[in-house]
Structures are given as C-alpha cells and as structure tokens.
Specification:
single chain, alpha/beta, Rossmann fold, 5-stranded parallel beta sheet, 6 helices, 37% helix, globular
Length: 151
C-alpha cells in the first residue's frame, strides 16, 4: 500500500500516531501544526506540502530548522505585487524546502488551481518517496514510477 495523503486537521495526527507513513498537506493557519507533526515524527511523515502558509512568529520559525522531511511550499500570485514572503521564508528555512509560485492563480492555490497544485504535489511526493526508499525509511516499496524503484 502506498503512503497516504492526509490534510491537517483531517486525520493527520491520528494517522501518524498509528504509525502509518503519510504525506501531510496543510494550508494557511494549519501549516504550523503540520510542521510540528513532521518535526515530532520524521520517520512517519514522508513529506510536507504547505499551501498558502500564514506568517510564522519567531518561536514557530525556530522549528523550521528541525524539519527533516522534504517540504514543498506553494503559493499563488494573482497579481505581480502579491506578498509571497511568508511562503518564501518557510521554504528557505527548511533544509529540503522547495518554493513554487503559481503565477496568475487566485488564492488559495490548492482550491483555485487544483490541477496545477495536484501536478506539483504528485511529482514532489514521488521524489520524497524515492528519497525515503533510498535512505531505507520507506516502509512499503515504492511504485515502479518512483525514483530509485526497479521494475
């Protein structure tokens, strides 16, 4: 069985505490809770996908250095003057952080540009699973389409 995708707060905590490897998605104000979950359970959380994150305070920002899982931060830019600093800051402070801007998309990106959001997240999660398989952290074998998998 492939790792599941769970949204914070829709069962992410319980799924992780049950020991099931997952990709955790969160948006807006829920991003900090997803980050805390990934920091506490780096062998269970395979990746974080964070959409349109809210700005973090100094205490929350300090947690970013402890995030050990690949993290994709997506933000939409409906206008050229859209403030993307919160999303960019989070991605920049996470060691394996990737920042993607969906130009011209209305906010929130995961709802208003679902197709683009889905393509970016699917590719990112495949890479995260490939990295986990290579490092011996993936509890189930990756599908043959994932990095490092052999048919």
């Amino acid at each position: 069985m492939s790792p599941r995708i769970v949204w914070w707060p829709d069962g992410a905590q319980a799924t992780v505490e049950a020991g099931e490897q997952v990709h955790v998605h969160a948006a807006g104000p829920d991003v900090i809770d997803a980050i805390r979950l990934a920091v506490a359970h780096p062998d269970i959380v395979l990746s974080l996908v964070l959409a349109e994150p809210d700005a973090l305070d100094d205490t929350e920002t300090a947690l970013l250095a402890d995030v050990a899982v690949p993290t994709l931060v997506l933000a939409s830019a409906p206008r050229t003057d859209t403030d993307l600093s919160a999303a960019q800051h989070i991605a920049g402070e996470v060691e394996n952080g990737v920042f993607v801007i969906i130009d011209g998309s209305p906010q929130p990106v995961h709802l208003r540009s679902a197709e683009s959001f889905g393509e970016w997240t699917a590719s990112f999660m495949a890479i995260a699973e490939g990295l986990a398989a290579r490092d011996g952290r993936l509890l189930t074998p990756p599908t043959p389409l994932l990095e490092g998998a052999h048919p």
